[in-house]
Each structure stands twice: as structure tokens, then as C-alpha cells.
Amino acid sequence: MESIFDFSVISNNFLQFMIGRYPNGPLGGLALTLILAFISVILSIIFGLILGLLCISRNSFIRIPVSFFVNLIRAMPLLMVIFWMFFLLPALTGGKFPENGTVVFALTIFTSCYISQIVKAGIASIPKGQTEASLSSGLTYWQTMRYVVLPQGLRNMIPSFVNQFVSLIKDTSLGYIVGVSELTQVAQQINNRTQNYAAEIFIFLAIIYFIICFAFTTLSRWLEKNLAWRKSI
Amino acid sequence: MSSYQFDLSIITNGKFAQMLLDGLITTIQLSSVSCVLAFIIGLNIAVMRLTSFTPIRIFAQCYLEFFRNTPLIVQLFFWYFGSFQILPTFINDWLNNLNFEFAAAVIALTFYTSAFIAEDIRSGILAIPKEQMEASRSSGFSYIRSMHYIILPQAVRLTIPPLINQFLNLAKNSSMAMVIGVGELTYQARQIESQSFKSFEAFFAATFIYVCISFIISGIINIYDKKVLNPMGKGTH
């Protein structure tokens, strides 16, 4: 075997990896990946919380359809959700729908269903006596949730949330399928153009994702330890 | 939407039904082969993570962190496009004679899934009381033999529900193999869509099959949980 790796392909295209063709074209690369992930994270928390609360609603006309929807999405591969959005959104809005929006929609729907399960488990971890005590002190169901159950439950959920975000950052790479110019797409473009440096390009790509995700995984582990420690006191 | 004619009959018979069936078979083959390999590797990594010999433990830790924290699609691209540069020629020739797309997908899925399986098995091993290992060691078994005969058989039994769950994830993740041209279910749905322009029917059918697979597997986990692990209805783990 001749000299195996030649990483000059990375340094020559470094800027494109980071921001795509930004000043001359749309923003892409790592910057777009992070933006997509950030927007999806915020939306997923909001919808995940709502779905989670609806899943444990006492009204079965709400609980059963919502639980069915959540289980249905969880039974599908993310790729299928992305394809559904890809065909459904233009049909519903009656025109072209931006690819970035498609991916954000798909990631949000998919992740909020998983987050709703975390929320459900987090709420279930709060002793039932607290809800009963709070209800019998005259608070309504929603006040009980808002002031008593959720503030405690959410703290327990934080490490699982962070783990879910690591998945979400990895999942933004599927934007490649519908032509979003995020990091993986940019890498594939560079790979097509330069031809002979596939191993270098994809090793570098893996390293970028690894650095971001590993940082969050470590954070989640640290939170798990520290939150548990505070609880025990 | 009103102008769209939803017509499932085009995918329930003829060429497209055959394509979906081929896709389903490929998905099952891909998931099963990767699952067996990932279990073997994952088991070893889990044991390596628990040894007291530091270099092996650190290796296992790095392996886990690396494969868990990079997207599967990147790993697929790496093995598909990049393996020619790093693998020796004779292995490349051998893989080419098989079905290279399929082989690359199996390799990527195996490594990716083995990292998750290793974590599940590790927590299964940690759930076995420490005294069992001590008793076994003091009866004269070596560390490896204690693991093999005493700890792992019990740990794997406890780990079966999360393992089946990983198999389910694997079956869902195998859809990503379409990006390197493996003819699994999602790939075939895409083909049907581009040949017939019936995108909703094609993806409805593929989604339906995935959802059936998922519900069957979740059902198996529930039955195992109820009948084997918790026959009396109280929690064991």
C-alpha cells in the first residue's frame, strides 16, 4: 500500500465544510447543521412536553389518539418520516416547500414523540402523594402539573433530554437525503469533486460529529451524577 | 390534495408488490446478519469495559464512544466509499465478489449497533450481584470462565428485552442503507415512487410494513417481560 492518507483535501476545503458556499450561496456545512439542530431542539421540547402531557391526560378522547400517534411515529424509521414530510408538505401547502423546513418539521415531529415518552416517565417518577396532596389543597389539575409535578419531574428528565439531542444532531445528517446542504451533504459534494479522498473526508466528518456529540454525552453523564447527588441530600 | 387519486391497487399486485417483497426480504436479511454480528462484538466490548486491565478497558470505552457519537449515515459512507483506501486488496476483492453494497451496510450497521448493545449488556452484567463473581472466582474459576459460565448467561437473560429493542432499532436504521444503494424496503419504495409517480402509495406501503415489524417486535418484548421476567407481576429490574 502506498501512503494511506492525505489530509490536504480537508485543509483545502475547510471553509466549505464549516459554512458551505455561504457568502456566494446559501449557508451550509457545519453552521447549517447546528442551526437545524438548534431550531429542532427548541421546537421538540415544546411539542414533546405538550404531547407528553396529552399522553397522560385523564380524558381518553385525547389520550388514546395522541398515544396512538406517538407510537406510530416511534414505530417508523426517521427516514420514512422525512420522506412523508417531503411529499406531504408541498401537497398540503400547494407549492414548493423549502428543504430546510422539511427537515426541521420531520426532526421535530420525530424527536417530540420520543421526548413525550421521557416526559411521561419523568412525571410518573414523581410520587403520586404529591399530586394528591396538591389537588386536595385546592389546586386545579393544571396548577398541580405546573407548580408541583413538572418542576421536579423536569429536573430528572434533563439527562435524557440531552441524550435525545445527541441523537438529533446525528439525525440532521439525514437532511442529505432531501438535498439540504448540511455537513454530510457538503462532505459528499467534496467527495464527488475530489474523487480519491473518500476515507479522509469521511473520517474528518465523523470526527466533527464526534466532537459535538461527545461533548453533549459527557454533559449528560455529568448532569446525571450531579442531579442525583443533589437529590440525595 | 383533492386532485390526487390515492390508489393502493397499484402496489398490491404485479411488479411493485414483488419489489416491496424483495425490499422486505433484504431488510430482514440485513438486520438479522448485522444483529448476530453486533451481538457477538457487543458482548465482547461489554466484558472488556468491565475488566480491571486498563488498556483493554480504555480501548472498549473509546470504541463505544466513537461509534455511538457519529451518525450512522457517515459510517455507511465511510465503509462504502473509503474502505478501498484502508482495507488490504484481497479483502476488497473478496467483498466485491460478494455484494459490496450489502457488505458495507452490514459492516456499518454492525459496528454502530454493537456499541448500543454493549451498553445494554453491561448494565445487565452490573445487575448481577457481585458475590456471584466472587463465589465463582473463589471456587477456582478464572475470570473469563466465571464470565462465561456464571455471569453472562444470567446477564443476557435479563438483557433480552433491551436487546430485542436494539434489533428493532436496527431494522429501522437499516433504512439508511438506501443511501449506498442497498435494495432494502425504503430503497424499493423510492424506486416505485420514481417509476410510478405514486409517492403516497409507495411510502404508505413501506411505512405500513415497518410499523407492522415494530408492533410485532414490541409485542414480543411485552410477552417476554410478562411471562419470563415478571411471571408474578412484580418488577425484577
How would you describe the overall organization of this protein?
Chain B: Residues 24-221 form the ABC transmembrane type-1 domain. Chain B: It is found in: Cell inner membrane; Cell membrane. Chain B: This is ABC transporter permease subunit. The complex is a heterodimer of chains A (233) and B (237). Helix content of chain A is 78%, strand content 0%. Chain A has 233 residues and is mainly α. Chain A has a single domain (8-227), classed as MetI-like (MetI-like fold, Orthogonal Bundle). In chain A, helix 3 runs antiparallel to helix 8, helix 4 (60-74) packs across helix 6 (99-124) and helix 5 (78-93) crosses helix 6. The longest helix of chain A has 35 residues, at 198-232. Chain A is elongated and about 70 Å long. Chain B is mostly helical and 237 residues long. Chain B has a single domain, classed as Orthogonal Bundle (MetI-like fold), CATH 1.10.3720.10. Chain B has 10 helices and no strands. The mean pLDDT of chain B is 89. Classes of the chains: A mainly alpha (233), B mainly alpha (237).
Strands, helices and their partners?
The complex is a heterodimer of chains A (233) and B (237).
Chain A: H1 8-12, H2 14-19, H3 29-55, H4 60-74, H5 78-93, H6 99-124, H7 128-136, H8 141-171, H9 183-194, H10 198-232
Helix pairs in contact in A: 3-6, 3-8, 3-9, 4-6, 5-6, 6-8, 7-8, 8-10, 9-10
Chain B: H1 9-12, H2 15-50, H3 54-68, H4 72-86, H5 89-97, H6 100-126, H7 130-138, H8 143-173, H9 185-196, H10 199-229
Helix pairs in contact in B: 2-3, 2-6, 2-8, 2-9, 3-6, 4-6, 6-8, 7-8, 8-10, 9-10
